[in-house]
Amino acid sequence: MSTADTLVQAPAGTRDRTLDRTGAVRIQPPRRRISWMRTGVMILITAIVLVPIGGVVGLSLRPALGSNSNAAITFANFVNMFSQTQVLTWLRNSLGVTLVTVLVSVAVAAPAGYVLSRGRNRLVSSYSLMLFIVQSLPVVTAVIPLFILFAKIGLVDNLLGITIIYVGSTMSVSIWMMAAYYDSIPVSLEEAAWMDGCSVFGSFSRIVLRNSLPGLLSTAIFAFLLAWNDYLVALVFLRSSSNFTFAVGLESFFQQNSTNWGLVMAVAVLMMLPPIIIFAVLNRYFSIGGLGGALAGR
Amino acid sequence: MLIAFVAPSIVLLLLINLYPTIYAASESLRNGTLATVGRFIGFANYSSIFSSSAFWKAAEFTVIFSVVGVFGSWLAGLGIALLLRDRVAVPSVFKVLLLLPWIVPVVVSATSWNWLVATPESPLPQLAHFLGFHNALFLANPTLAKITVCVFKVWISFPFMMMMMSAALTSVDKNVYEAAQIDGASRWQTLRRLTLPLIARSTYISWILMTIFCVNDFPTIFLLTGGGPVGATTSLVVLAYQTVFEDLQTGTGISIAFIMTIALVLVSVFLYRQIRKVNIAE
Fold first, then answer.
1. Mind telling me how many Å the CA of A189 is from chain B's nearest CA?
2. Cβ contacts (< 8 Å) between B114 and chain A: which residues?
3. Is the pTM of this model over 0.90?
4. Cβ pairs A/B, distance under 8 A
5. Is the per-residue pLDDT at B64 higher than 90?
6. Residue A261 forms contact with B (CB below 8 Å)
7. If 0-12 CB within 10 Å is exposed, 13-18 middle and 19+ buried, where does residue A212 land?
8. Is the dihedral of CA B130, B134, B140, B143 positive or negative?
9. CB B219 to CB A27 under 8 A?
10. What is the Cα–Cα distance from A87 to A154, expressed in whole angstroms?
């Protein structure tokens, strides 16, 4: 390094230049030294950002109002919530609705995304445009007519009703995500299969789907988050507390017991655990950048 | 033949998205309620909306909320993505931790923000008091409530921008930076003339998506303030919801949502065209 520097008389700021064996100037990639300054700034930012979430966890571990416990940390709230709230009902309803949404949404989006990825004709582009327009329609415009329609056919205050709406609202993004993933699988694999007499259905199910686990998983995560986190649809459609999902259950409990922070936050912790666990386990499959690319390419 | 592949999705889209939109269009020309189909009244709903001050107030707040939401979260997300790009220890750990505001259900985070700011005894008003700002009523003062809701939205949305921008930054060819360094470009020039143009496409996409997210966002506002105080944080979505489900004026409520939709589609199409331009330029 030092000899190279003296040889080329490197101007200031180009310390990374060296001579390679042939004597040509070679630029080395910038060295990856860790800057503790930058790391410190990031730690500070992260700490501030996480205050509200830390608050939820911290409050859930505090002794309840009026209890004579002196302990700094208690799990009493997590025990009490099962007897003092309907948290088990909300959990069951939310899990059921979310799982069905995930399964149906992936099953419908997987083949549709394939057409979007491989199709190159007018019909496919108008289908793509339709997805784009549909995605910009606000849920609230759809919710009101759907409420009137569902009231006629008995789907208001019904978990099946909100599941149908969740599946419908995942459609555009799920299809885009699947299409984006298929784009990364070379068509030549399928062409080889077709040469061997395989049908389009056959090549799709045996070659494309088999190689699409990451795409399927990221679509599933998206559908999971949408259904688990939704508030508006559940607020409008669910009336009786035995049908409440977690979101409306927690909110109504909070409205009635806003001073009992320990219990409210214990329920909140239980509600935020499933999405966090899923993300912690599967986060490498979830690429939003891929979604962006899929959108722009069309 | 491939129609079998797309048929289920088309049925769902027709039922959940297009049918309600067409129904809404016809309903917006009637004076119905949730229980009764009203009679045809032409554009009376629209003219009454355009002359109502509540509508213009909500439209104004929707614009503020969306502009702050889009650019606030973009700046924060891009800034953190740039910081994390190099020379930070364990960047993946920071990325995962910083995603939390976006993953946590909004009902949970709204509950938490309520605890942080709602009453004078809450931590943030106490901190403000300690710093000399007395009576900082974050949700009771109209201006402060607007700011609080916008900050809440940026807090929820910046992780999405961080992910989009990180993905865009990793696809930028490192060699261009070396070229810029050799030419003696300053950091600011590099960012302004090199990085930003190179990620322009992802930036426009993220703006489109975030505009849609912000304009359509109901729970962030409704759960934190319910649209109050005195309607200060009522956006068009919240106003539409209240008009239908609290005032029971279906026709008017749907018309509000409809005007908002048309405006939103126009903005998205405008931004979508910008992407096309970027594509051609490349």
1. 19
2. 254, 258
3. no
4. 262
5. yes
6. yes
7. buried
8. negative
9. no
10. 26
Average pLDDT for A39-66? 88
- Three-class DSSP category at A19: strand
Short-list B119, B149, B152, B151, CA closest to B136 = B119
C-alpha distance from residue A238 to each of A96, A151, A163 (Å): 15, 12, 12
C-alpha span between B2 and A162 (Å, rounded): 29
Residue A186 forms contact with B (CB below 8 Å): no
* Cα separation, A285 vs A274, whole angstroms: 17
To the nearest whole angstrom, how far is the Cα of A151 from the nearest Cα of chain B?
9
ipTM: 0.84
The domain segmentation of chain A, as residue ranges, is 1-33, 86-296
Residues B29-47 pLDDT 10s: 887 776 677 778 878 888 8
- The H or E element spanning position B78 is helix B73-85
For the A86-296 domain, the top CATH level (class) is mainly alpha
| pLDDT for residue B273 is more than 70 | yes
Ordered domains of chain B (ranges, CATH): 53-281 (1.10.3720.10)
Q: Does A103 touch chain B (CB under 8 A)?
A: no
Taking an 8 Å cut-off on Cβ atoms, the answer to whether A111 and B5 are in contact is: yes
Write out the two tokens for A250.
């927690």
Structure tokens at B177: 């930076």
* Between B20 and B155, the higher pLDDT residue: B155
- At residue A7, the pLDDT reads 38
Identify which of A250-264, B57-71, B205-219 has the greatest average pLDDT.
B57-71
CA angle centred on A25, ends A24 and A30, rounded to 5°:
145
